[in-house]
Amino acid sequence: MGPFLELLYDVIFSPAAAMRQIAARRPVGQAFVAFLLSIIIPAGAIYFALQATAAGKFAGAFFAGAVCVRLVMWFVGSAVLQLIAEFFGGRGTAVGLFAAIGFAHLPFIFAVPLAVAGLLLPQGAAATVFAVGVLVLIFWVLGLTVVAIQGVHGLSAAKAVLVLLTPLLAAGAAALAAVVFVGAALWPLAG
Amino acid sequence: MFKRSVVLLIAGVVVVSLVAAAFLVPGLKSKRSGGEKNTVAIIYVDGVIVGGRGQAGLLGETGGTDAIIKQIHQARDDAAVKAVVLRINSPGGSAPASQEVGTELKKLRATGKPVVASMGDMAASGGYWLAAVTDRIYANPATLTGSIGVYIPYANWQELYNKIGIRSEKIKSGPHKDILSPERPMTAEERAIIQVMVDDLYGQFVAVVAEGRKMDPARVRQLADGRIYTGSQAKELGLVDELGTMYDAIDGAAAMAGIKGKPVLKEYGKVSPWSLLFGAHDEASLERLFFRRFRQEVPLTAPLAMPEKW
Question: What is the mean pLDDT of residues B228-239?
């Protein structure tokens, strides 16, 4: 328990050293626990929030769905990033990256105190504070993912960012190509 | 040791937050609903009033009277709702559908919540039927209303069939089983049967108006020759109570419910982005009704409480 707690501290306060340590030790079990905490805690908060809305009856389904989808995305996302990192000259292992990305999602546990702070604030301010807070958390997790790629694969910061952005750029390019092809196919019909 | 303490402190904050969320949210829910005590619900009746679910999508249904009745029940069961405004923009529809919604409106009124009708462009025939069962009717001076009456549409296409060489035959279980068939002229006996039905429905309509408007049935029959009236004509004749907009109707409903100050408005039947995505958004339209009739999806015998032309 002790080393795990210290690792969690390092992920939050000195991520570069933590990710290098994770790359070397590959603590998949601990990463699984950290990732599960980062899913279950915010999903639990959203579950309570949904209870107060008309969508309350879907809260349970949302909770189960969110946990399953995030676990699948962790696995698939790590595999995709591993492949891209190797294309960019990365030397790390897939298991190391899988574990590091699991830890990189840890900041999402702060979504709960953020949500509670939002509940206590007046309605107008709450929405703004919550939106800004969630954005900060998302960028924090993205930053940790970049550090994880760097730490595991020994890439430069720029290359690590590129590894992270490549799936997005590829998806954007594919969508653009689809629009162009579909548009070209439908153009004669428009006339 | 320091690192562990910090992580445990963070864990403590997160756990406390989670527990607080579990307790705060239900409190917030009751607090918010408590803040909406003085609510006036608005239920929209748009387009032709037809029975059934209208257009059903994955996340709800709109159009048919089932959706309107569901909204009436929501307003009845919502403790925050103190009064209901029925916003009518309809040329009418089928008599049974109008009657069913009218009955549910009466039940809503029986709970002590006042129901006020606000007429838009048109609240004729079946639309007026619904208005007649409310506590107070608001119409704009130019609103088209009235058309109190019932008809059962019937077409005789025999001559056309003869021209194009179609000869239709039926094996019937009884002499009147194919009454109102478009393939042959109606007999005098059948016409009498249908006329009795129409008279019965008309009598029910007149009774609803007489009871709702607290008018002498004989006087209602004088006015109920099927003609349409403008809002201001209807006001003079006692068919509506006030001339005014929907917001006048809301103020009137709030005053009837004893709400002081501005009421909170709750719109029922609002089209959600989800229902837009999943298709349950089209209101029932006359064209669609006619199209369905043409495709024999609704029986031709549906007694209609709406103007022949509108």
Answer: 95
